[in-house]
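Hey,
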Amino acid sequence: MTKIRAKISGVHGYLPPYILTNQELETMVDTTDTWILTRTGIRERHILKDPLLATSDMAVQAVAGLLEKTRTSPGEVDLLICSTVTPDMVFPASANIICDKAGIKNAFGFDVNAACSGFLFALVTGTKYVESGTHKKVIVVGSDKMSAITDYTNRETCVLFGDAAAAVLLEPSTDDTGIRDAVLRSDGAGRHSLYMKAGGSLNPSSHETVDAKEHFVYQEGQAVFKFAVTKMADVTAEIMARNRLTSKDVAWLVPHQANLRIIDATARRMGIGKEQVMVNIDRYGNTTDATIPLCLWDWESQLRKGDNLILASVGGGFTWGAVWVKWAY
């Protein structure tokens, strides 16, 4: 019996129109363009300024563009998975809201929260539904309004994040293209290094938590950097080794866009040149769940059927992983 694979048959993204530059951040906190560039590689990031718009609204833009370009009607979609750390609300799931706004009525949906690795976790989850033979069209959308949980008086974190959404369509593959292998990992001991302190059942929202600014991203920068630079490189090396892929076999590294130094370290470990690495952190910053599909969207015209891509990420929690994709179109 021929194995059913899931292929990415389309990708589309959305970026809010407002651009927050390093120069503007210089007027907001004690920082400089040089300081930000040297430590992160970021020049600017997009921000969803309209207070009436949320994570689901960006996701709907990405999903609508994806449906149009793949000539897929909303009624054909079987499942929508949203990976996010900034859902519109605690419940219902943002995936349900996205389906309603996008006119997707014949599908079920749910959210995945694995921090910056969320898109990979959601992609592999969606892949399993296609591989089972029960689902023909699955949308995976990564969307985050990070500006909603960013403290713009904290120079360590406010320079890092941007807002965006991007989505892919998964369908059954009729050849050897598609999602070929994945290594996903998590270690809850990392929960103390990168998290949001309040708003959950452990520390519910109160006047005290708001006054203490505990509803923003909290990060121990050095601990997170040390973990990320090691684990993202390790997991890419692992997936290459177990599939006997060499640097010559890999067309592109598609890394999570958290820090340029982490990306460079991963590429060196893989033995590939900078020309094989997708990098847009300078223009978008860290958009959390949207970074990897945004890269695919940006580079879509340069991808060729049969190209081997390694998608890799590390996120708070800690979570990390790598996915081998053979591009389908």
